[in-house]
Design goal:
It is a single chain. By secondary structure, the chain is of the alpha+beta class. The chain has one domain (50-361). It has five helices and 22 strands. The strands form four sheets. It has a 16-stranded mixed beta sheet that branches. Strand 17 and strand 18 form a beta hairpin. The longest helix has 32 residues, at 2-33. The protein starts with a helix and ends in a 7-residue tail after the last strand.
Length: 368
């Protein structure tokens, strides 16, 4: 009886110690999962020296057997613990477009025709950038570029304002910033930063500020870390809402993706709430009446509904071959009857031969 009396307090203390240790381990794990998304440091504003106007001089009609190759879409990511095969960490094999895809691109035309005739014949057919013009530029990434838009829409009433998509680079680093402004009540910004590679953009950080709320995504080596601390395996060539504009522009301008009515484009997109595989159908080639640039031909990309959507935000895109395949119109649906429609007003670029500024200015504060 005396032995039990002596061991009782010791056993009680041991139980308390084990409980405290369990709580400490749990809190440490939770803290690791919910660590704040690191803040971004914005690049210095570039110097724009020229205005871009529509031109057909750098376009050519797609040939019946194009030399473009298209990246096969990767399989969907598997959750940890799944018995299915993991996402490959290396690029998937390249595939040559099928005969059906080549027929969709249209019949062959005489590429020796004048530029104006080639631009006319290219309607509803796949067009690609002239390889010689790319080699003269020394690279297939654009110089620092700002696309300014006139914004209309509806959000708790008629909406009027402006927007812009700005791309800049410093050596092998990039920044894409999308901003929307309307009076003092509506302001949205989306910023993507990361690395430039031959295969495409490789985001490292994405941050968005919308209606006073700031959220982000961190692109780690093999996983994506979302705002709530959860992680998901990172698929090959994943982009974010901002980087997709420049990534798709580069794919189209280099022929990595065939831009033709009837074709489709797939891209993984990561946002603070999660990730999904987006499929855009090229549904038409429209003539857009722009405020300052006049009529512009652009291919209309419409997204398909995605499985398990998180939020009602979708975007239709228009890319113009005569304007370096840049996105000249963006229509964003904000769910229900709310939407924002951006129409290009002006395109500014820096001197491609000038070195990009590397000075950086403090960016946003740490995310909650």
């Amino acid at each position: 009886m005396r032995a039990r009396a002596k061991s009782g307090p010791v056993g009680f203390v041991l139980v308390i110690a084990l409980v405290l240790l369990g709580h400490w381990i749990g809190l440490a794990w939770l803290r690791a999962q919910l660590q704040p998304i690191r803040p971004l440091t914005l690049m210095a504003e570039p110097l724009f020296t020229r205005i871009i106007a529509p031109t057909a001089a750098t376009l050519r009609v797609a040939e019946p057997k194009p030399r473009h190759r298209r990246v096969a879409p990767p399989p969907p990511p598997q959750a940890k613990g799944s018995t299915d095969a993991p996402i490959p960490s290396t690029p998937p094999a390249l595939e040559t477009p099928s005969e059906d895809a080549m027929e969709t691109a249209g019949p062959a035309h005489d590429t020796s025709a004048p530029a104006s005739e080639a631009a006319t014949d290219s309607r509803s057919e796949g067009v690609a950038a002239d390889p010689e013009s790319l080699s003269r530029a020394g690279e297939d990434w654009p110089a620092d570029t700002r696309v300014s838009y006139r914004m209309t829409g509806y959000f708790r009433g008629d909406l009027y304002g402006s927007g812009r998509v700005q791309w800049q680079r410093a050596q092998d680093r990039y920044q894409v910033r999308v901003e929307l402004f309307a009076a003092l009540v509506f302001r949205v910004s989306m910023t993507s930063q990361g690395e430039i590679t031959d295969a495409g953009l490789v985001p490292s950080d994405y941050e968005e500020q919308m209606l006073g709320r700031r959220q982000g995504v961190v692109f780690e080596a093999e996983t994506l870390r979302f705002q709530d601390g959860t992680r998901q395996l990172k698929p090959y060539a994943v982009q974010d809402t901002a980087s997709q504009f420049v990534e798709l522009t580069r794919r189209f301008s280099t022929g990595r993706e065939i831009l033709a009515v009837g074709s489709q484009v797939q891209v993984w997109l990561a946002r603070p709430a999660g990730m999904a595989l987006w499929t855009y159908d090229v549904v038409a080639e429209d003539t857009l009446q722009t405020p300052e640039l006049g009529p512009v031909q652009a291919f209309h990309l419409r997204p398909r509904p995605i499985a398990n959507p998180r939020g009602g935000i979708t975007a239709e895109l228009w890319f113009a071959p005569a304007l370096q395949y840049l996105p000249v119109r963006v229509r964003i649906s904000l769910g229900s009857e709310n939407f924002v429609d951006l129409m290009v007003e002006r395109i500014e670029q820096s001197d491609a031969s000038a070195p990009a500024p590397e000075t950086q200015t403090p960016g946003s504060a740490a995310l909650p």
